[in-house]
Amino acid sequence: MKTKLLYYLSVTLVSFAGVHPGLAQTTNLSIAPLGKQVVLVWPAKATTYVLQSTTNLLPAAWSTVTNVPVVVNGQYTETNAISGTRQFYLLSQFTVPPGMALIPAGSFTMGDTLNGWTYAIPTNVTVSAFLMDTNLVSLSQWQAVYSYATNHGYNFDYVGSGKAANHPVQTVSWYDVVKWSNARSQQAGLTPVYYTNAALTQVYTSGDVDAVYANWSVSGYRLPTEAEWEKAARGGLSGQRFPWGDTISESQANYNSDPSSYSYDLGPSGYNSIGIIGGMPYTSPVGSFAPNAYGLFDMGGNVWEWCWDWYGTPYGQPTTTNPTGPATGSLRVFRGGSWTQPPDDAGCAQRGAFGAGAPVKGPDDLLGFRCVRGI
Fold first, then answer.
1. Which residues neighbour 98 within 8 Å (Cβ) at sequence distance 6 or greater?
2. Contact 293/330 with Cβ under 8 angstroms?
3. Residue 320's CB: how many other CB atoms inside 10 A?
4. Using only C-alpha atoms, what is the Rg of the chain?
């Protein structure tokens, strides 16, 4: 996935930076001392590059630096303490895998007051760059991994449902989608994210486990945190109600339109007919509507999307940088609205929560998901 392109730097003594041939001056990596710290700087427009580090070049064991850089005058700026240990740095360019989109690092305003929700009070949150599925997990995608998983020691509570192969999978519990994400990682040759012990040695493969431990440092598939989901949904927009702007219509999302009750709902009134098959649930095929600015489809409507976090208020727990939600709880967060819900539920700041073992929120309110990966 990653191709190393630039030279390394040491934070202990003399360092140097360079530019890979053919990259012109777009990806300079420079270093400067600042008291007992060093400052690494590279252009913020180099969005397909990640900063990596290692303490040993023979052999080199590069790992991605997870600190979120600060943009200053168009430059990413990363400040690290000098610890006395030789630390080498390089920029690596990576290729976004098919079916995923790059969500850039940075801060954004999580939540809004547009609908008067007391649980969505705006908070400034910062997240590292990550990759997200451009589409909801479809029934066919679910079934392919499910088949692999059940033949490799995994057990699930629900088989999953869907109106057609290209419609989103639904009727899946939080427990099941977390285990499925691990199986997807292993099938792809990636390190699983979720474990049932703090030592991160027992991969979560079966049962309904609340005390799940996440290895945030690996690049396997996982559920988005609530903060990651909202940053991705907003697509770089600020202060807007939906992933594409401040109004909604049935040409933009699959939801239950009600223009008479919502001034920003352009209709037409009622359930959306795009792509539906037979009776309820009235889901649409994944990717039926235009994507947001990050290239993500269905971030509002179609089916609700499970997130990692336990539900809690306020946002930004335990920290406003890469928050992962409360340490414990009774309900898991879901986001995004669904085909059966009114337009306000398709808003970027709308939050919902339900028990981790529930495959549906209500009789017709179905739960689905999409995965992310760290980089």
1. none
2. no
3. 17
4. 22
Q: For the chain, list the domains and their CATH numbers.
A: 2-94 (2.60.40), 97-375 (3.90.1580.10)
- In the numeric block, the tokens 């600020």 are attached to 238
| Neighbour tally for 254: CB within 10 Å | 29
DSSP reduced 3-state for 323: coil
Distance CA 373, CA 192 (A): 11
Asked if residue 125 lies in contact with residue 106, where contact means CB atoms within 8 angstroms, the answer is no
What pLDDT is stored for residue 94 in this prediction?
A: 74
Residue keyed to tokens 């530019």: 19
pLDDT digits 0-9 by tens, 179-210:
999 999 999 999 999 999 999 999 999 999 99
**Model confidence over 218-242: pLDDT tens digits?**
999 999 999 999 999 999 999 999 9
* DSSP character string of 87-140: -EEEEEEEPPPTTEEEE--EEEEE--STT--GGG--EEEEE--EEEESSPPBHH
Pairwise CA distance, residues 41 & 185, whole Å: 33
Give the span between the Cα atoms of 252 and 114, in whole angstroms.
Answer: 19
Q: Is residue 294 within 8 Å of residue 235, measured between CB atoms? A: yes
DSSP state of 223: P
What's 285's DSSP letter?
-
Sheet containing strand 304-310, edge to edge, reads 352-354, 332-335, 304-310, 365-368, 360-362
Beta carbons within 8 Å of 261's beta carbon, 6+ residues apart: 342
Q: Say how far apart CA 225 and CA 333 lie, in whole Å.
A: 9
Query: How far is it, in rounded angstroms, from Cα 325 to Cα 214?
Result: 12
Residue 82, token pair as written in the block: 């000098």
Q: Of 40, 52, 51, 38, whose CA–CA distance to 84 is shortest? A: 38
Nearest alpha-carbon partner for 254 in 292, 289, 224: 289
Which of 49, 54, 47, 50 shows the shortest CA–CA distance to 9?
Answer: 54
| Cβ count near 16 (within 10 Å) | 11
C-alpha–C-alpha distance, residues 185 and 214, integer Å: 13
- Return the number of other C-beta atoms located less than 10 Å from residue 98's C-beta: 6
Q: At what angle do helices 139-150 and 174-187 cross, to 10 degrees?
A: 70
Q: How far apart are CA 228 and CA 292, in angstroms?
A: 15
